[in-house]
Amino acid sequence: MALQTFLFFFFALFFCNIIITNQTVMPNFTSILIFGDSTMDTGNNNYILTLVKANHLPYGKDYPNNIPTGRFSNGKLVPDMLAFLLNLKQNGVPPYLQPNLSTNELCTGINFASAGSGYDELTSTITSTIPISKQLEYFEEYLEKIKGVVGETKAEKIVKGALVIISCGTNDLVFNFYDIPTRRLQFSTVSKYQDFLLEKLQSFVKELYDLGCRMIVLNGLPPIGCLPVQMTTKSPLLRTCIENENSDAQLYNQKLKELLPQLQAQLPGSTILYADTYNPLLDLINNPQQYGFEETKRGCCGSGLLEAGPLCTSLSPVCSNTSQYVFFDSIHPTEATYYKLTEYLVKDFLSQISSSRSP
Predict the structure, then answer these.
(1) Using one digit for the tens of pLDDT, what is the confidence trace for 303-332?
(2) pTM here?
(3) Under DSSP, is residue 179 helix (H, G, I), strand (E, B) or coil?
(4) Catalytic residue check, 329
(5) Which of 62, 124, 332, 351 is catalytic?
(6) Which residues of 265-283 are buried (b: 16+ CB within 10 A; e: fewer)?
């Protein structure tokens, strides 16, 4: 417990040092609102009927009080770290479906993400999770709740001043195109399926805008072909990254980057920005020693080859030093990796927000 507390405040101070050194002023937000998949979900799946859960050890083994909260990692996620640095939350961003949320929790930030979800409704049908469309319905419900608590005018100010983060799309490609070829039978190329997903993304962003959101961040895809589970199924002996899947992720990210300025131009008063996950994560994988990591090809839980969710359990052996692993299970990063990704966001990304909000 003492060690994890020390590490958390060490990294927090490290991030603050980056901000001061680069003369980047941290922007002020009224709230943080999260949508997406397992890289963002802080526990919504605990409250639905699905096998895609992380509310059991060894998940959460390094979270405060060693509690498995539903986060698919050994500790905190990027939204938790950003919320702390933005002085919005001290103990992470709570899931919307958590009962008995306080007025302060509701007004300073809520998480609507669901592990296993995607932009494609079929993805959530396969995994029995909360699709983006349902996350939007929960957001509308949330708006009515805060209006009832603080009044309509203040609720509108909270939403308008919120930082909205969306991270989705990996499950769509993995579940619907690569590993289960449902959409591959419908779309002749991966590029056409990507266009389908980006249409869904555009509609989602426009609906958030119509509900009052103005600062929206969209996360690109990670190097999907370097996920341990993808290497296990497609390169079990050599355990090398699946280059065509990485190329597909790069293609999608390029389309997304080109789309966002067009989308922003259609939505007056909005700021819509791209967050790069692909390059910083690939850098960690290709140059692990430079960042204090040793293992990049398997997760910390069990064999590290296939275990995730219901296959990563309290009976699974766990590596002795989680901080040396890029991945905690065969899909999801460790808290140490998330700290590095947050560091990248602070340096490369929050400065963009500050610039965009300058007069």
Answers:
(1) 999 999 999 999 999 999 999 999 999 999
(2) 0.93
(3) coil
(4) yes
(5) 332
(6) eebeebbbbbbbbbebbbe
